[in-house]
Amino acid sequence: MSKEEIAEKWLRKAYTDLRVAEKLFEIGEEPWVIVFHAQQAVEKALKTYLVLHNKHFGKTHNLSRLIDLCSEIDKELQQLHELDIDELYPLAIEARYPDTGIEITVNEVREAIEKARTAISFVTRKIESERAKNS
Fold first, then answer.
1. How far, in Å, CA of 92 to CA of 104, rounded?
2. Range(s) of the domain holding residue 99
3. Which of 97, 99, 108 is nearest to 25 (CA)?
4. Over the stretch 103-128, which tens digit does the pLDDT of each residue have?
5. What is the rounded CA–CA span in Å between residue 119 and residue 102?
6. 53 in Cβ contact with 66 (< 8 Å)
7. pLDDT single digits (tens) 54-103
8. Domain total for the chain?
9. I need a surface site. Which of 30, 51, 66, 105 has the fewest CB within 10 A?
């Protein structure tokens, strides 16, 4: 399988996680599970970009680390740090467990979904722009 085919699978999964987060929000599901899917959507979008650039990322879910790796390829991806996209990681991870004392508000859920939309759109536009330049 080519890196393009693998990347396409990562990106499809990213969009699926985003749709799941949106649908779970619509039906009033528990906030932690919605934020988890939003975080997963961002993670998979970033991994899409890394796969396309043959950049090894190992087994990590840390969005800050993934953004840093993407930024080594293109500095513009640092904007995702400026948009606080990486804040989804600790929130999504910690809130999954009942003994952390973390309670996610409805506003935080909305913000998580919006951050996921923003990050996926940003990465998708970056990929499309690079493809256009290389055509």
1. 9
2. 3-134
3. 108
4. 899 999 999 999 999 999 999 999 99
5. 24
6. no
7. 999 999 999 999 999 999 999 999 999 999 999 998 888 888 888 888 88
8. 1
9. 105
